[in-house]
Design brief:
With 415 residues, the chain is an alpha/beta fold. The chain is built from 13 helices and 12 strands. Helix 8 (222-237) crosses helix 9 (255-266). The longest helix is centred in the N-terminal third of the chain and has 21 residues, at 72-92. The two termini are 37 Å apart. The structure holds beta-D-galactopyranuronic acid (GTR). Beta-D-galactopyranuronic acid binds next to helix 10.
């Protein structure tokens, strides 16, 4: 370890690894018909693999001062905080330090839910600061067959009907009955409880409560706010007698998947992260500029990221990070990435590559981790150590078949 690293001296060097992988015939490839159709519908978006620019990725194991990290201790001590800080400053933004009061009120307990197989609790999580407050409504089902169960916490970015605690409406987005039957607890909250999903210059939601200091270019956006909300739900889950606190997963789809990755990166109490079709600003490599790009996402959703992120519109190669490094922040904890073959907007190949290129960090903890260097075939789950991936056939959505793969992964890593 160099003196400069030990004394935390300034940023001088960056070393890069080449990142292009070949795709053998057994691996997944985008359907040429779909590529043609999507390319015709949006001429400003690249869906053609051959048009992906050549790029080099920042090496997750080389520090900003040019030192090579070769063991988990140095990773945790030097490089991990450095990468977390880069994502905070340039991508998701910084949570303000405003003190707040957190209280939990259980408003409903039903020990005989789902025909007696589960216990349902509904908890109001109240956040109060400077005389204002905000409430996150958390629902939690735990199986009655075990004393303490592992739990999946879903960040719901669809309408609240999808997480109906009365179970009058059942959605594949949150398949509680199936999870309970497999011995898993299911928790969920609606993202808009924490921050509404619209741009109002950060006045509403939790921003209206905690943003007391003037906002800067690195102030938190809405994804960071949702991730923070997931952590407040976790604060509660860790107190619940029916929850196994060492086995809590954060799960999200699409914008919720981007959020799950950042929640897992910032809160190491989550022991598993599942990012379903999280695409740009989530699982897919920015430098590929395939499907949705930084410019498109920052224009379409100006509230999701910090203002600094906009500086990289069309200049992805200048980002000091790429999404393999976000995944590396989750190591050595369990990480599952999923994609769908019709969701080229979210770049399935770029999502697999992020996972693949995070593996050098995972290997600091488990030298046997290894995934193939090509995107796996359709509907074939791949798992190695604490990592896993699948690409499902069909549309951009979170479906029961995705959950079934997530639970197979959890069966393996949480056995
Ligand atoms: C899209 C957005 C994606 C993804 C998706 C979703 O419109 O471009 O990045 O997050 O919404 O959340 O369903």
């Amino acid at each position: 370890m160099s003196t400069s690293l030990r004394t935390g001296m300034s940023i001088v060097a960056a070393t890069f690894v080449a990142a292009l992988l070949s795709q053998p015939s057994e691996g997944w490839k985008a359907s040429p018909e779909l590529v043609k159709k999507l390319s015709a519908s949006r001429t400003d978006v690249n869906y053609v693999e051959e048009k992906v620019p050549s790029y080099i990725l920042p090496d997750p194991l080389i520090t900003l001062t040019g030192d090579k990290i070769s063991n988990s201790r140095d990773w945790n001590r030097y490089r991990r905080p450095e990468i977390a800080e880069l994502f905070t400053t340039h991508v998701y933004g910084r949570v303000p330090r405003t003190p707040y009061k957190l209280t939990f009120t259980t408003t409903n307990t039903d020990k005989n839910a789902l025909g007696g197989t589960a216990t349902l609790k509904q908890i109001d999580i109240n956040i109060e600061a400077a005389g204002k407050n905000l409430m996150i409504h958390l629902s939690l089902f735990t199986p009655n067959s075990v004393k303490k169960s592992p739990v999946f916490l879903l960040i719901c970015n669809r309408s609240p009907d999808n997480i109906d605690p009365s179970r009058k409406i059942k959605s594949e987005f949150w398949p509680v009955e199936e999870a309970i039957a497999r011995g898993y607890g299911m928790a969920a909250f609606h993202n808009a409880d924490v921050d509404p999903d619209n741009y109002d210059n950060f006045k509403n939601g939790i921003h209206g409560i905690l943003d007391i200091e003037p906002r800067g270019n690195d102030s938190w956006g809405t994804i960071a706010a949702w991730a923070w909300g997931a952590s407040r739900c976790l604060d509660y889950l860790l107190t619940d007698e029916n929850v196994d606190k060492n086995r809590i997963a954060v799960v999200g789809h699409s914008r919720g998947g981007k959020t799950a990755l950042w929640a897992g990166a910032t809160d190491q109490r989550f022991s598993m992260v599942i990012a379903n079709e999280s695409g740009c600003g989530g699982s897919s490599l920015a430098r590929r500029k395939y499907g949705e790009t930084l410019e498109i996402i920052n224009r379409g959703f100006p509230h999701w990221f910090c203002l600094n992120y906009r500086k990289y519109n069309g200049r992805e190669e200048e980002l000091p990070v790429d999404m393999h490094m976000l995944m590396a922040l989750i190591a050595p904890r369990a990480l599952y990435v999923a994609a769908a073959d019709e969701d080229l907007w979210g770049d399935p190949k770029g999502s697999y590559l992020s996972l693949y290129h995070s593996l050098p960090v995972y290997r600091l903890f488990d030298k046997n981790i290894n995934l193939e260097n090509f995107v796996p075939p359709l509907n074939k789950q791949v798992m190695s150590g604490n990592t896993g991936f699948h690409i499902r056939n069909g549309e951009h959505n979170l479906k029961l078949s995705d959950w079934s793969f997530f639970m197979d992964f959890a069966d393996k890593v949480w056995r």
